[in-house]
């Protein structure tokens, strides 16, 4: 089923590209180190039969896609795969911190809110979720920048690291090896913990922005699911058997209430990995989201198509992982 979803996405994306001029579509097939782009476009039109019927062109493009050739990006003036591989690590650094925080805080506050229904904790959690879900991410980001960077000077105004570290990494004499292209990890692997700490320092405000916005929905869903679960007959039976309130809540109620939260968490993480367009733009983080904005502005069709397919792939993988998690959360699902 998931394979058919991916195929459907590729068909839909390719149909949309057929509305563009043939020269623009030819960029999808250009690969390698290009010096003469017009000549490469002309050659691609002939080589890949771009004047042929739709199904012939689609199969040619799909074959290139399966071989890892996503075309030439006019925005970054390099292969799309290279452009994505260069930008995605910056997005990953934010997601690496934001995703666990969103899931942990969302589940914890959702459970506490349900346990202490209509109490101070519940009111505070509901207020937090309403405010977080109502405010646009650019406003939260600018507010955090104004307070913690502009007034208190605790954090930098933007960027993914201090300029001195960028210079250091770019100097061949320093022998800095990009093992993973994730500066957060490469700093440790190269014996430069100060670089890792600098990256973390730059990640604090973007992560705080993402967590503030996305945790709001998770709190509400967890609270609602927990309240529904606690009203089930088996919870009443568990209490009647003399089980402690702690065992009833955390062993029985919470585990069963996690099923809808697991689905939402998977979708949230997949969405974060596809790029934080507004957050990265506000903080000048230079990740995949910011590159998407540039690609749209320049009508960079190969990059936009690759990004769309990548997004679909991430959501399909997230759905698969969530389905596997269901069996762990609720063992009864294994019998179906």
Short description:
This protein has 336 residues and is an all-alpha fold. It has 15 helices and 2 strands.
What does this structure look like?
This protein has 336 residues and is an all-alpha fold. It folds into two domains: 2-69, no CATH class; 84-298, Orthogonal Bundle (MetI-like fold). The chain is built from 15 helices and two strands. It has helices at 2-17, 22-26, 37-47, 54-66, 80-115, 120-134, 137-151, 163-170, 183-189, 193-230, 233-240, 245-273, 277-283, 288-297, 301-329, and strands at 72-73, 78-79. Strands 1-2 form a two-stranded antiparallel ribbon. The radius of gyration is 24 Å and the shape is globular. It starts with a helix and ends in a 7-residue tail after the last helix. The model has no long low-confidence stretch (mean pLDDT 84).
Q: Any descriptors?
A:
single chain; 336 residues; mainly alpha; MetI-like fold; 2 domains; 15 helices; 1% strand
């Amino acid at each position: 089923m998931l394979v058919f979803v991916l195929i459907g996405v590729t068909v839909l994306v390719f149909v949309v590209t057929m509305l563009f001029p043939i020269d623009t579509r030819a960029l999808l097939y250009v690969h390698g180190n290009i010096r003469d782009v017009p000549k490469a476009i002309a050659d691609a039109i002939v080589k890949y039969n771009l004047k042929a019927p739709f199904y012939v062109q689609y199969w040619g493009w799909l074959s290139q896609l399966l071989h890892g050739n996503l075309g030439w990006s006019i925005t970054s003036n390099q292969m799309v795969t290279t452009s994505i591989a260069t930008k995605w690590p910056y997005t990953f650094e934010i997601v690496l911190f934001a995703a666990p925080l969103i899931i942990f805080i969302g589940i914890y506050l959702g459970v506490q809110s349900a346990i202490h229904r209509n109490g101070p904790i519940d009111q505070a959690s509901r207020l937090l979720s309403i405010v977080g879900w109502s405010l646009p991410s650019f406003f939260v980001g600018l507010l955090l920048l104004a307070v913690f960077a502009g007034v208190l000077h605790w954090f930098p105004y933007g960027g993914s690291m201090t300029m001195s570290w960028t210079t250091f990494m770019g100097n061949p004499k320093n022998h800095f090896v990009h093992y993973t292209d994730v500066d957060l990890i490469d700093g440790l692997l190269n014996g430069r913990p100060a670089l890792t700490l600098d990256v973390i320092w730059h990640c604090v405000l973007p992560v705080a922005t993402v967590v503030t916005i996305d945790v709001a929905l998770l709190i509400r869903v967890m609270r609602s699911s927990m309240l529904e679960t606690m009203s089930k007959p088996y919870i009443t039976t568990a209490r009647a058997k003399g089980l402690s309130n702690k065992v009833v809540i955390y062993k029985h109620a919470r585990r069963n209430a996690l099923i809808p939260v697991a689905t939402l968490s998977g979708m949230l993480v997949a969405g974060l990995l596809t790029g934080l367009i507004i957050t990265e733009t506000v903080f000048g983080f230079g990740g995949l989201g910011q590159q998407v904005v540039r690609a749209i502005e320049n009508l960079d069709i190969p990059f936009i198509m690759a990004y769309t397919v990548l997004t679909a792939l991430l959501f399909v993988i997230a759905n698969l992982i969530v389905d596997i998690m269901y069996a762990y959360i609720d063992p009864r699902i294994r019998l179906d």
